[in-house]
């Protein structure tokens, strides 16, 4: 009877669709921020650089629903953070022993900032994703600097689109009421961020030890799960992510059979972003179906990958499962009062005058 109740509850969680108050223009603006860099790259015959710029365009999704001046200041800070994260990822690629420590530092610092300022989702996810993709980008010397510049230009374009979008939304909906100032606690900002960063680093280390062919997706999957507001939310997010990824890989294999040139890739990427941003606040598993081919295109299409679609499909599913399992373990620790007390006590000793 308990097993039946468990399965019914899981199905209810999986089948439930959330309501959304997002303006319908938001997914369109997000699709432009992510898709335009690829079209620009193709116009110059540089699909790979266009895809890097598209990665920078994801910074648009950090646009808060606040007054215009705050929106732009926060988004420009996020653009700087995204560029810095990608740069540190490239540094980790050039000096592999630094890779895991750099990713831990990025995850800890960005999570602290997002929690201190009460930033809404996606939180620190895209910063870690940019660093992880940068760390496994086969670029050296001058080409690495060119790719960093392409990502920075992608963030600049996203900020410009966000400015025009914000002008329209504020004129149509008015200035949002100011939110109460966050009053973050030490455990919420520091302890949680250190635990999250530690498990993100552990997931990348596990990927390296397992010699996974595409290890960059393991820490991203881990972070997506561990950020759940509760252990139940983390479990549900893990289930949604694994199921959505499995179906999304089938969609990717279907896309791979199409005779897509660079313009086709740009069009598909733009449409995928539009669908994802329409669905993600309503049903995460359904959005993950489209997130999977999108992220594979961002990470693989411009690198001349020699892997067959079936190999990419298998590697991505393994990466997602490994990351999700480690992320769920991290969420269990994150929501364990005893574990948090031990970690919190150790961190407080590092403070000036700490006991």
Secondary-structure topology with pairs:
Layout: H1 2-15, H2 25-43, H3 47-57, H4 68-94, H5 99-116, H6 125-135, H7 141-173, H8 186-209, H9 217-226, H10 231-256, H11 262-279, H12 284-300, H13 309-334, H14 337-349
Helix pairs in contact: 2-3, 2-7, 2-11, 3-7, 4-5, 4-6, 4-7, 5-6, 5-8, 6-9, 8-9, 8-13, 8-14, 9-10, 9-13, 10-12, 10-13, 11-12
Per DSSP E runs of 2 or more residues, the count of β-strands stands at 0
Number of helices: 14
Q: Compute the gyration radius: what is it?
A: 20 Å
Please report which band the strand proportion falls in: under 5%, 5-15%, 15-25%, 25-35%, 35-45% or over 45%: under 5%
Q: What's the pLDDT, averaged over the residues?
A: 83
- N-end to C-end Cα span: 50 Å
Helix/strand/pairing class, anyone?
A: mainly alpha
What would the principal axes of the Cα set say about the shape? globular
Q: Considering DSSP H and I runs of 4 or more, what fraction of the residues is helical?
A: over 70%
Strand and helix order: HHHHHHHHHHHHHH
Question: Low-confidence parts, pLDDT < 50 over ≥5 residues?
Answer: none
Major sheet summary line: none
How many domains? 1
What does this entry look like structurally?
The protein is mostly helical and 355 residues long. Helices cover 75% and strands 0% of the residues. The mean pLDDT is 83. This is FUSC family protein. Keywords: Membrane, Transmembrane, Transmembrane helix.
């Amino acid at each position: 009877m308990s097993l039946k109740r468990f399965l019914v509850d899981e199905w209810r969680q999986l089948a439930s669709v959330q309501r959304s108050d997002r303006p319908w223009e938001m997914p369109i603006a997000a699709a432009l921020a992510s898709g335009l860099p690829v079209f620009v790259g193709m116009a110059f015959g540089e699909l790979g650089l266009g895809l890097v710029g598209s990665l920078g365009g994801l910074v648009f999704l950090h646009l808060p629903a606040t007054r215009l001046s705050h929106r732009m200041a926060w988004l420009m800070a996020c653009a700087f953070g995204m560029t810095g994260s990608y740069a540190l990822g490239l540094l980790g690629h050039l000096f592999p022993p630094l890779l895991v420590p750099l990713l831990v530092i990025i995850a800890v610092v960005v999570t602290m900032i997002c929690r201190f300022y009460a930033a809404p989702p996606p939180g620190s996810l895209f910063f870690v994703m940019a660093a992880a993709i940068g760390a496994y980008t086969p670029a050296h010397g001058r080409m690495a600097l060119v790719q960093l510049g392409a990502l920075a230009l992608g963030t600049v374009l996203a900020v410009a689109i966000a400015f025009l979008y914000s002008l329209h939304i504020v004129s149509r909906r008015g200035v949002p009421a100011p939110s109460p100032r966050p009053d973050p606690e030490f455990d919420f900002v520091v302890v949680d961020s250190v635990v999250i960063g530690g498990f993100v680093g552990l997931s990348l280390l596990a990927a390296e030890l397992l010699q996974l062919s595409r290890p960059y997706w393991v820490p991203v999957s881990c972070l997506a799960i561990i950020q759940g507001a509760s252990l139940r939310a983390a479990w549900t997010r893990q289930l949604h992510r694994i199921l959505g990824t499995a179906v999304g890989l089938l969609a990717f294999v279907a896309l791979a059979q199409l005779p897509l040139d660079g313009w086709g890739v740009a069009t598909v990427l733009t449409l995928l972003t539009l669908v994802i941003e329409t669905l993600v606040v309503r049903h995460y598993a359904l959005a993950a179906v489209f997130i999977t081919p999108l992220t594979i295109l961002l990470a693989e299409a411009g690198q001349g990958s020699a892997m067959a679609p079936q190999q990419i499909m298998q590697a991505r599913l393994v990466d997602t499962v490994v990351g999700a399992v480690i992320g769920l373990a991290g969420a269990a620790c994150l929501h364990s009062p005893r574990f948090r007390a031990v970690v919190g006590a150790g961190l407080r000793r590092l403070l000036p005058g700490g006991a």
